[in-house]
Amino acid sequence: MPRTLRDLVDHHYSAAEAGDAQAMFDGFAVDITWKESPGSKFAGTFTGAAEIADKVFARLGAHFEQFAFIPRFFVAEEQMVTVIGEYRAATSGREITVVPTVHVWRGTGTTIESFEQYTDTVLLNAA
User: Fold this and answer.
1) Residue 125 domain-assigned?
2) pTM of the shown model
3) Is residue 103 part of a domain?
4) More exposed terminus of the chain, fewer Cβ within 10 Å: N or C?
5) Would the CA dihedral through 64, 56, 99, 13 be positive or negative?
C-alpha cells in the first residue's frame, strides 16, 4: 500500500500520543529541518533527529509536567500537510493552558523533510 506524507504525519502524532519516542522519528529525513516559533523559549532551527530529540523534545519534557499536541484539522497536499490544532501544556502545579498552533510538514510519501511550527508564543511561554 502506498504511503503518503499524511500517513507519515499521522504516524508521528500517534507515536507521540503513545509515548513512543523512537517511532516519532520514523520517516524523518537524515537532514530534516525542524523550526520552533521565534519568541518561544524553545525557538530555533534544528537539523536531524538527534538534535530535534535533544533540543526540542527533551527540553519540552523537562520544562512541562504535561504537554501534548491535539490535532484538529488536516489540510493535505502531495508534498505538504498543514495541521491546525492546539498544545495543552502545564508546568508543575499549574492549570493546563490551551495554545492554538499550526504545524506545517513538508516531504514525500517516504520522507519528512521539514517541520515548521506557528504558535502563540506568549501563551506557550506563560504555560
Assistant:
1) no
2) 0.93
3) yes
4) N
5) negative
pLDDT tens digits for range 74-120: 999 989 999 999 999 999 888 999 999 999 999 988 899 999 999 99
d(CA 26, CA 52): 13
For residue 17, give Cα distances in angstroms to 6, 11, 47, 67, 81. Answer: 17, 10, 23, 10, 19
Confidence of residue 1 (pLDDT cuts 50, 70, 90): very low
As a whole number of angstroms, the distance between CA 13 and CA 5 comes to 13
Question: Which SS3 state, helix, strand or coil, does residue 44 take?
Answer: strand
How many structural domains comprise the chain? 1
Its domain, for residue 83, covers 5-120
Which CATH number does the domain housing residue 69 bear?
3.10.450.50
107: left (phi over 0), alpha (psi -120 to 50) or beta: left
What does the pLDDT look like over 15-74, one tens digit per residue?
Answer: 999 999 899 999 999 999 999 999 999 999 999 999 999 999 999 999 999 999 999 999
- Cell 508546568 -> residue: 91
| 127 lies in some domain | no
